[in-house]
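Example complex used in Figure S2.
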Amino acid sequence: MGAFQIDFGESRKSKIVGIDLGTTNSLVAEMDLTGPRIIEDPEGRKIVPSIVSLAENGKLVAGEPARELLLTRPERTVYSVKRLMGRGVEDVRDELKLFPFRIAEDSESVIKLKLGNRTFTPPEISAAVLQQLKDNAEAALGVPVTEAVITVPAYFNDAQRQATKDAGRLAGLEVLRLVNEPTAASLAYGLDKRQDGVIAVYDFGGGTFDISILRLHDGIFEVLATNGDTHLGGDDIDNLLLRIALEDVQSEWGTDLSTDSEGVQRLRRAVVKAKEQLSFVSESTIELDYRGRKYQRSIDRALFERLIAPIVERTLEPCRACLADAKMPPEQIDEVVMVGGSTRIPLVRAAVERLFKAKPHTELNPDEVVALGAAVQAGILAGHVEDKLLLDVTPLSLGIETMGGVVSKLIHRNSTIPASATETFTTAVDGQRNVLIHVLQGERELVKDCRSLARFDLKDIAPMPAGLARIEVRFLIDANGILNVTARDARTGKEQTVEVKPSYGLTEDQVEAMIRESFEKAEEDMRERQVREARVEADNILAATEKAQKNDAWFSLSQEERKTIEAAKRELQTVYNGNDHHAINEKIEQLNRATTKLAENMMNTAVRGALKGTKID
Amino acid sequence: MQALSRDYYDFFGLDRKLTLDEEELRKRFYDLSRQWHPDRFSRKSAEEQAQALEATSILNDGYRTLRDPVKRAEYLLKEEGFPIGEQRSKDVPPELLEEVFELNMTLEELKSGEESARPQLEAAKQNFGRVREEIDVELSTLFLKYDQAEAQSETAKQALHEIRGVLNRRRYIENLLRDVDRALNPSAAATVPLEEQL
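Predicted assembly (815 residues):
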């Protein structure tokens, strides 16, 4: 660890990677000389399933191994955790009916998930996926990976973005930029080379839906408007089919499979497989062979399309709102780009084509295009890509609570970010020392209909009569879409302390504590490994010594020399079972020194033997 | 490091005119974005990064203000010492008194469930929409008057004074239209275009 930092920290030889942290699948990509490229894992796989499991040794494993554990150890495994990022327990009540999330009793503003007998927050779970991607990238690139661009749904609110950034930090990644998924996809498509124009990006993924409308001009990607639904995706289609299949099984087998986690997971896989096939063939079969019983149901595309039509329709409403916000009639959209696995569904393609009156682009793999775009953005940040620039917007209006539970809007949705607003606050009572500002996000007028982001406590205001204080508060949404609040006393110009209490997120202290804990864990892991390695070496030298003691050379040593070796052996055996690898290594070294002459003598015997033509061992 | 101007016209390097060429403004916005966007400063010092963030926020806030004729005029008025009222004016423009009174009655009727009031409201919406269009024409004429007058001259001040009056009237109409839209389509309140929420 230490050597790593000394070698690479200063010279920044590390590489910025682009990461698509998806609901169902995640990918990591890099920018090389020829362009963006997906990085494969050592087995040659591009996709890391966003599934995390608590292994028997108490560590979180992510990706393919966790996918297997989802079947055998469902109570220790979790997937689609992106749906829970930056959300509170109340928000996810509906999801709980459909997803096997086990929420811990003591969840407060941040949800805690139970995996086996331990609990983890959604950022910690996501960090395990990121860690896996980081490991894959380091293995493939041969350099440390400490900086990343991570993509988020364009319609993610502040808390969801913050949670993603926290996950990055927990995985040991500095998140240089959060990029919106549809905008990242537009970078990957490189449509700017072809023409100036207006494009729409329709991004229908595993758990989220986004639509963005962009103007392209000479390498500038200017987002005009964005809209979406952070809880609408392929998962919803799976759940719909799963419900039907579960009912079938109930009536055919007479057993309720829904209470059997493994059975549900197997049936879910069967349903997903059938769904995916239906994008290419006109009929497929949901097949389950479970504990000696079989279930089969064929489903044709017409029925499938009837079933999913309401879900597809739900994506069109945000599209229309987005067109209205961009002040663009559909005819003015030159190109439509399709992103996300769910855009393979023919009905989805047809609906999009009908709405935008343009044939959608599907040339790039919809599963990979977001990660590729993230890599392009990484190239922009590294200074390697100079001809492109992304100007993104904030998806939701930002406001503060005013009298009567009304929200006063400060920064409107679809404002290009970074964006800022300044408001002056004062005190209501004589001698008041604090002012509490409640910040919300959303389009509605009443506090109860908007999303609470955080309460900012302006502290240590100089005591004075009511209404005299002048605290100037600056709300700044940065290029990541994350809110920063600063305050100063307008009379003295002095910076004012602001304490942030996030409504649905980890506080800075909590994140710090988790990072510390993970460092401690990492150190513990490292110590364990060092002890294990030292013992292996001790085994080797002890075995070699014992073997040598049977050799003629052993008897060529003086009694004194033999005693020293015996003593060194005993001392090594004494420390062998301890947890101090330094002590073990020290005794190994001691035994090594004591046996140097013995080894030499053996060598000589061997050479002599060889010269005599005698076979030695 | 160069000092940043917080004045939007200065930042864009534009003359303080109320009539602006939209294409020219956008071109400058893109050029300045290329110069200042935080993406360009990712490998620079923390100080330079902070300045880039600051510059881009002025740039973006400025572009939002200047590209919209009404916001642009409100900004210039404020800068020239003609601040427009903090909150929306409650004073009914005298020439609209009668119509507004009638409209409020109809609004109440629809709110209390009398669907028969709907066509009347639709008509009122059309009518006030036309009034807004007339106001916009009036505004562009006044913009020219201001732009052609010598800076700080009596004519310029007179123009600004008139613009302020017209803007107040426009704001009043905007609010009326918003109320009508809400009454006609209560569930769509969340998707009312932003300009009308202001």
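The two ends of chain A are 42 Å apart (CA to CA). DSSP finds 16 helices and 26 strands in chain A.
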